[in-house]
Write a structure and sequence with these properties.
The complex is a heterodimer of chains A (about 475) and B (about 100).
Chain A: H1 3-9, H2 12-34, H3 41-62, H4 73-96, H5 102-127, H6 134-157, H7 167-189, H8 194-216, H9 224-246, H10 249-272, H11 277-282, H12 304-312, E1 316-321, H13 323-327, H14 331-343, E2 347-352, H15 362-369, E3 377-379, H16 380-383, E4 392-396, H17 405-408, E5 427-432, E6 452-456, H18 459-471
Parallel strand pairs in A: 1-2, 1-4, 2-3, 4-5, 5-6
Chain B: H1 2-10, H2 12-29, H3 37-47, H4 52-60, H5 65-97
Helix pairs in contact in B: 3-5, 4-5
The chains are: A alpha/beta (about 475), B mainly alpha (about 100).
């Protein structure tokens, strides 16, 4: 460190500023810790938010640049105006979004965070082109990838962007990664003059943005929870890299905490699908690895009346929701069904697969929105031992997460993936729009099970009719 | 080689914080029930908006047009991330809360 910085840190204001960052870092940790228990989670969010506001205020008042100058009045006003605008826009978006659209919203906010990190890293580079450091370049690269990747994820979840499944995308992506590494090495050790290095850095920005797009493009459907959580972790890392440039502890710690949290969630999602992270990123799930096992048995339908009778005289019913429930916005009617059955003395539980939906924990949020008490939501590992005692398992818009091929068919692409053991229930009712295959593009053996009956139609419409059928009994 | 040594020495404190933060992060987050995965992800996402401090510093000392434009953009985006992230997380957690007896 040079003399100037030592001098600055000896000024009382600078000491307050530095320690406000420490306080903020502590508040982030407490906030995240509290957010891991349902009872304290909301309080945790307030802690984290306060941990964000504190360093914003102290930085605005106490920050000094290398020459010891504070932030000028004009700049302070500009900063306050921008923050006010961002807060209004961000809050309105966050208030208006539907719970079913939550994965898109989180992706979008993640994209803005990534873009901010990339922009900060870029400006810092142009300020001191002679001091191009690895962390700055990494902040730029990771932030850009997180931005463009999250925007594509947002577009896909919102139905604006389609999937591209192609074998060659794997090679294209590997090539992009190699180019990015090569350019970083060139900038750092190539011995170019400042002008050339600046061109290279802008080139790096462009390649990283393109790579973000081509990285998320081939990934879709059931892999979405993994990707969103991975991109989330990248944004955290980008923020930490920018924090490194400023030697700012709150930014470093906050960013790395998010990076670590995102990584853990990502790995948990991968484990829930019995696939490695590499396999999710570069493997194309949709096409290859078709199952060769022959399906035995036939599809049998059930009438609404029969389904109503069956459910009303059951003791234990388990509802297994999937993405189809979210698409049909059927969470409210599902709750109506479960409370109606509950009033008849039927015990109703929801079985939640870790990767059901399009982001980690998506089903829990939807059902919570419909006022389903979270005690009624049971995780896969807890419900499976009880499945043989269940009278009726209702599968609503889920497919691969209940496919017994995961146990029986070593040739199946989902072989080995943990599933909810719907096939062990005494009766199985499947609500489905048609005979389409799940995301993995394979036959679901469960549909051909002797105990299985199909109820075709849109999940919301079918359940509405089912509820009125039960009421009229 | 000398570059690397200089870098490692000059940034020792930051590197220590990074490495220890990774362990802290794993420790704090592990064993979260899947009920909370979405709010936790969105809450963590809001924290990654801490880049907002970088935005404040940049706009605070902006001199060229380039710095003003890109800095303002960065600050605005970071604010979206922070404000939107915390509000959306609170909305989700509120739903979990009101069912408590």
């Amino acid at each position: 460190m040079n003399a100037m910085i030592i001098l600055n840190t000896l000024m009382p204001g600078q000491v307050v500023l530095e320690y406000s960052y420490l306080l903020s870092a502590i508040m982030f940790v407490i906030g995240l810790k509290l957010q891991s228990h349902p009872e304290t989670a909301r309080k945790g969010n307030f802690w984290a938010a306060s941990g964000m506001i504190l360093p914003m205020i102290t930085t605005l008042i106490l920050n000094r640049n290398g020459a010891g100058e504070g932030i000028g009045m004009g700049n302070v006003i500009a900063i306050l105006l921008i923050i006010a605008a961002g807060t209004v826009v961000g809050s309105i978006m966050a208030r208006k979004v539907k719970m079913t659209a939550m994965p898109q919203m989180v992706s979008f906010f993640n994209a803005t965070g990534g873009a901010a990190s990339a922009a900060v890293a870029l400006i810092e580079y142009t300020k001191n082109p002679d001091q191009a450091v690895l962390v700055g370049l990494l902040g730029l690269v990771v932030g850009s990838i997180a931005f463009s990747g999250s925007m594509i994820a947002y577009g896909k979840l919102d139905g604006k962007v389609g999937d591209i499944f192609a074998k060659f995308m794997t090679y294209v992506n590997l090539m992009f990664m190699a180019v990015i590494v090569a350019v970083i090495v060139l900038v750092l050790f190539g011995g170019f003059d400042a002008q050339t290095r600046t061109y290279l850095v802008f080139g790096l920005l462009v390649i990283s943005l393109v790579y973000g797009v081509s990285f998320v493009m081939p990934i879709g459907g059931a892999d979405m929870p993994v990707v969103i959580s991975l991109l989330n972790s990248l944004t955290g890392i980008a923020a930490a890299m920018a924090g490194f440039i400023y030697q700012n502890e709150a930014m470093i710690l906050g960013g790395i905490l998010v990076g670590a949290a995102g990584t853990i969630l990502t790995l948990q999602m991968c484990k829930a699908m019995n696939r490695s992270l590499i396999n999710v990123i570069i493997g194309s799930f949709g096409g290859g690895g078709a199952s060769h096992a022959d399906v035995q048995g036939s599809i049998k339908e059930i009438t609404l009346t029969d389904a109503a009778v069956l459910l009303s005289y059951s003791q234990k019913v388990v509802i297994i929701p999937g993405y189809g429930l979210a698409v049909a916005q059927a969470q409210h009617i599902a709750h109506e069904l479960d409370s109606l059955l509950g009033s008849k003395g039927v015990e109703v539980k929801y079985a939640i697969h870790p990767v059901a939906g399009r982001m980690p924990g998506h089903m829990n949020v939807l059902l919570a929105e419909a006022d389903v008490p979270y005690e009624q939501l049971v995780e896969m590992d807890d419900i499976n031992p009880d499945m043989p005692n269940v009278d009726v398992a209702i599968v609503v818009g889920a497919n691969d997460v209940v496919n017994p091929a995961a146990y029986d068919d070593p040739g199946s692409p989902i072989y080995g993936m943990p599933i909810i053991d719907a096939h062990l229930a005494k009766n199985i009712i499947i609500m489905k729009r048609g005979m389409g295959k799940g995301y993995a593009g394979i036959e679901n053996f469960l549909f051909f099970n002797d105990k299985t009956r199909m109820l075709f139609g849109d999940a919301k419409g079918t359940m509405t009719k089912l509820v009125s059928e039960i009421k009229s009994m | 080689m000398e570059n690397v040594l200089t870098f490692l020495t000059a940034n020792k404190d930051a590197i220590f914080i990074i490495v220890l933060s990774v362990f802290l992060g794993f420790e704090v987050i592990s064993n979260v029930p899947s009920v909370l995965h979405t709010p936790l992800m969105s809450g963590a996402n809001a924290i990654s908006g801490v880049i907002i401090i970088g935005g404040i510093i940049l706009v605070g000392h902006a001199s060229t047009t380039f710095e003003w434009v890109l800095g303002s953009l960065a600050l605005f985006m970071a604010t979206l991330n922070v404000a939107g992230g915390f509000v959306v997380t609170d909305r989700m957690l509120e739903m979990f809360k009101k069912k408590k007896k």
